[in-house]
Amino acid sequence: MQMPEPDRGVIGRKREIIADLQEILPQESVIYDEDELRAYENDGLTAYRQIPLIVVLPETTDQVSQVLQYCHENSIKVVPRGAGTSLSGGALPLEDGIVLGLGKFNQILETDFENRCVVAQPGVTNLGITNAVEHAGFYYAPDPSSQIACSIGGNVAENSGGVHCLKYGLTTNNLLGLKVVLIDGSILEIGGKHLDSEGYDLLGLMTGSEGLLGVVTEVTVRILQKPASARAVLLGFETSEAAGDCVASVIAEGIIPGGMEMMDRPAIHAAEDFVKAGYPLDVDALLIVELDGPPVEVDHLLERVSEIAKTHGAVYNRISESDEERARFWAGRKAAFPAVGRLSPDYYCMDGTIPRNKLPHVLTRMREMSEHYGLGVVNVFHAGDGNLHPLIMYDANKPGDLEKAEEFGGDILTLCVEVGGVLTGEHGVGVEKRDLMGSMFSEIDLNQQQRVKCAFDPDSLLNPGKVFPQLHRCAELGRMHIHRGQLPFPDIPRF
Ligand SMILES: Cc1cc2nc3c(=O)[nH]c(=O)nc-3n(C[C@H](O)[C@H](O)[C@H](O)COP(=O)(O)OP(=O)(O)OC[C@H]3O[C@@H](n4cnc5c(N)ncnc54)[C@H](O)[C@@H]3O)c2cc1C
């Protein structure tokens, strides 16, 4: 993994930078001891590690502003970090960069039931928002499987999703306002408790910007009233292809479930061994479909979904009879990643999105690739959104295994783009998919995206080395050729 060349001058000034930062922040909020820095050396993409130069833990927007202004004036790179659960390496530190951790921003500032919103600091966990409002019958809909740990600031930066996003939208659809500190220390207020504002959609631009445009220090999100009832059905199929066809048919019939998830045989077995969710073990694919709303509507829709599943050859159908049973159905799905962690020393979690009707084709191709690379793959995905999460199993201690897993993952994502999908559904680009950006975007697209980055951060100090591709991989993807000595992608910094 090639990262920008570290600035030796900045590394040489480490003592001076620590002293300067201690003028801005309390002593204990500036971490520079190597053992303590090690806690920040990676995020959820554990294949890559780098001990940062320094970690700072501010606790007010004003402190963030002063730190960023100092870094701007002294050409020091900054990597924002929430809870560090990113699966694409978005919070991977830099040798010559400061990690700016938002862990101390952990307060809910306001719960406003009248306006149906919550104002929170960015370090509050995703689940923390629901916990703060559920006593009044409300919840925050986007529910990444990492919701007990990941921060709402990280959710904004990655535009995170989850099981319920099929019906209720991703982070971007549930976000109302942000406070953002720009690299020069200025503070930008975007949106608020009201609906859309006039002008450019800066809220949309910041969502999914992966820490490259500014540091979020306050978030206003929409909360929803809990549905009157919810029931889930487990549907088992003899092939993943049949389950994939069933997903496409349910949506084509105009039914939008609260959640529609799919697991293949290895995932079913891993999850069942781990949490005893009550899954059938003799099927090749399992759908968990949840319907929510008034009880009469839920019962009617469950019947229709069951009928559709039957026409696709479902061999197993079990409807939850209580909230406890429904929660147990989901517990298996939510624990699927750690469950797979028990099957293989390491796994690489991919995240691509495809048009729903391409699911059977993509699953077949993935099986062929698995044989080709000699690495197992387990499939767990947000089937309703066409968002795949293949988990490629490998052993980091086996020479060459990681490289094979990376190549396999790259092939899967390229296939997603080929069939009309996109490189990421919800985990972001980070460093993981950075070098594949050329397979999806043209030179014109990438140049324009880079110009947006330049408008916010002209010196590329915020999270450099993430999202925008390295040129040698663009060349491999056949997207770069030098014509009459003219350099393509002239705006992209070379490193
Ligand atoms: C077991 C597991 C399951 C997961 N399941 C899901 C899932 O179902 N759906 C899903 O979408 N994701 C999932 N993820 C991925 C991850 O949890 C999300 O991407 C999450 O939003 C990251 O939040 P974080 O606080 O950990 O951010 P971090 O990992 O700390 O950072 C992620 C990115 O956001 C930037 N960032 C963080 N905070 C800020 C801020 N305040 N201002 C500006 N930039 C910031 C960082 O620079 C980085 O680029 C999963 C991860 C794990 C480990």
TrEMBL record:
<dbReference type="Pfam" id="PF01565">
    <property type="entry name" value="FAD_binding_4"/>
</dbReference>
<keyword id="KW-0560">Oxidoreductase</keyword>
<protein>
    <submittedName>
        <fullName>FAD-linked oxidase C-terminal domain-containing protein</fullName>
    </submittedName>
</protein>
<feature type="domain" description="FAD-binding PCMH-type">
    <location>
        <begin position="48"/>
        <end position="226"/>
    </location>
</feature>
<dbReference type="InterPro" id="IPR004113">
    <property type="entry name" value="FAD-bd_oxidored_4_C"/>
</dbReference>
<dbReference type="InterPro" id="IPR016171">
    <property type="entry name" value="Vanillyl_alc_oxidase_C-sub2"/>
</dbReference>
<dbReference type="InterPro" id="IPR016166">
    <property type="entry name" value="FAD-bd_PCMH"/>
</dbReference>
<keyword id="KW-0274">FAD</keyword>
<dbReference type="InterPro" id="IPR016169">
    <property type="entry name" value="FAD-bd_PCMH_sub2"/>
</dbReference>
<dbReference type="InterPro" id="IPR036318">
    <property type="entry name" value="FAD-bd_PCMH-like_sf"/>
</dbReference>
<keyword id="KW-0285">Flavoprotein</keyword>
<dbReference type="InterPro" id="IPR006094">
    <property type="entry name" value="Oxid_FAD_bind_N"/>
</dbReference>
<dbReference type="Pfam" id="PF02913">
    <property type="entry name" value="FAD-oxidase_C"/>
</dbReference>
<dbReference type="InterPro" id="IPR016164">
    <property type="entry name" value="FAD-linked_Oxase-like_C"/>
</dbReference>
<dbReference type="InterPro" id="IPR051914">
    <property type="entry name" value="FAD-linked_OxidoTrans_Type4"/>
</dbReference>
